[in-house]
Amino acid sequence: MNKKVRFQWGAFLLFLFYGGLFFLLLGRFIYIQTTGIVNGEVLEQRAEEKYNRSQILEAHRGTIQDRNGNVLAEDTLSYKIFAVLSESATVNAHDPRHVIDVQQTAEKLSAYIDMSAEDIATRLQEGIDNERYQVEFGAAGRNLSHQVMQKIRSQNIPGIQFDKDLKRHYPNGSFASHLIGFAIKEETEEKKERLIGKMGLERIYDKVMTGTPGMLEYQSDRRGFLLPSSDKLITEPKNGADIYLTNDRTIQNFLEEAVTDVQEQYEPEKVTALVVKADSGEILAMTQRPTFDPNTREGLTTNWLNESVENTIEPGSTMKIFTLAAAIEEGKWDPNAWYKSGSYRLLDRTIYDHNVVGWGSITYLEGFQRSSNVAMAYLLERLGDDVFIDYIKAFGFGEKTGIELPNEAAGIISDRYPINRLTTAYGQGTTVTPLQLIQGMTAIANEGTMYQPFIIDKVVDPNTGENLLDHEPVSKPSPISAATANHVKEILASTVTSETGTAQKFKLDSYTSAGKTGTAQIPDTNGQYLWGRQLFLYSFLGMAPVEDPELIVYVAVHKPKIEPTEVGSDPTSYIYKYVTENALKYLNITPMDFTERQQVEVGDYTNRPVADVQSELQALGLEVITLGAEGNITSQYPHRDTKVVTGNKIFLRGSGAVTVPDMSGWSSREVQVMEQLSGIPMERTGSGFVVSQSVTAGTIADGSVPIVVKLSSPEEAYTSEPIKMEGESEPIEDE
């Protein structure tokens, strides 16, 4: 009986013990369930840290594009290579995920990246010795193209892995490099890498073009894979703004080609060149030598200055344009009056014409055509030097133009003493920028209206399509009248056409031209002027066509190595003629022989029978391209009230099937019109004029297969303006 009681007591104690444990655990569970805290840690937070994953979604830096949407700078996908060294990365011995053989890995990699096998092996071995999980290969292992990555991956090298990366790409190479600049990846204060603009537009608009990264958040299992029931939370990245320039890639290419030719032939110290739209101030092309490739920075030395904007020069005789304009405006110009050329004395100083002895007694007109310094001196007497300086300032010299580029130089007008004002009249002593010369020349080209040069057309937010900036031409107070401007233009044209003109080499084959040459002495480090045929700055400031100037071009060549049989205008005239001729043809500017051909004013032909209009236009001497010969005309190009020259094409869109025309010799612009009016997809290769087409002329096109046309010759490419067809409410957009 006593034994039984003892047994029950023991069972009771066991019940109490295990019961207490149960209630203790139950209480613990209830506490954890209600508070979510274990050992001071919040379980939910710990689970999120363990199973929640996040991934940064890179935002693209904004592009830089020309006026036609051609990309000049953009982000492009690249790859970064690294080597996994830790054995813990390998789960299956038959599928190694870490570097197995250091020497073999180094030898294979050295064939694809810019690093020797010995250096690669050293880096791998040091990583292994220091028990690092992985190592990278510095600059040699970054910015790898997709093709190189694929070649390395095909080698199946254990432990070699890749990360995707973005790098800045400049598809045109050394193209307006000092204008566009470059951006490279750098580590920020937050220890994150991002593209940072270091020069040119890339630096100026760095904040505007830098986007905001997004985020991808999701739940995963312990191996990092997305759980099937997990929701992904995506915060979309915001890409940076796109910068659209007034620059025209085709005209820029013309300029780059010509300047490169001069650089190779004459080996000048520097070359600076600008092409500007005369009636607006839009910069169509800008370049300089030496230059560099922004993709590699090869060629970038100590000169990071944009020579057209940030550096000043003595303009030489190009300044005589504005001295002449001031004299004409003040009524002090008499082209038929005579003066004694050769030399002119002011107090204790004597100035000379460039040939020292002069040409005897000549008229002021001949003196200007010959670029006589003495003519400017006598003209200054008539004008008054104080009045002259006021005009020079009114043309914008001595102050910044206001272009949207940094560090613009203002130049210095040398006017302290009478001799300074005299030398300024023919371009010595006073300093200017090429941009200021261009700005002043717009007043001559536009009947007295002076335009501020600009390079930014618009800034667009690609996320919303909103225009953050839309630049319109800015006119400035006119220093001269329309009559004066036209008179100056005529005299500048005579320097090209006259037998005594210094600008005869700047005569164009297909267009009229006007301008002024310049030969300036270059000051040395001691403040003295250098002297010698190969030590001058040779320049030209011109416009074309004279009747209605479309382009203003400035070229300056510093210290070219010209032969004894050559003159300083040889390199400058080569650039001017090559660029101006090709650019005007590209812009579809009618050559100067248009006066010998009849002009026809285009009417509104919509809703009229195709056959009737076709006969009518052919009788007027126009080449009619009919796209669908049935029914009435639904749209046309050119639109009504446009004046065209006989022999030009006019496109009519009717009903019915479209017969493919013979497009041989067509410009890219005309191919574009054909595509937009007919609805037939066209694929263009090359630039210039059509030399072949994939579908034979006369074939009925159904639009199911694109017509491929090949273009050749650099003289004409894509149109710079949207084309609007009569009968359509919206313009046809360029590609």
TrEMBL record:
Keywords: Membrane, Transmembrane, Transmembrane helix. Its main location: membrane. SMART domains: PASTA. It is found in: Membrane. The keyword Metal-binding does not apply. This is Penicillin-binding transpeptidase domain-containing protein. Residues 716-735 are annotated as: Disordered.
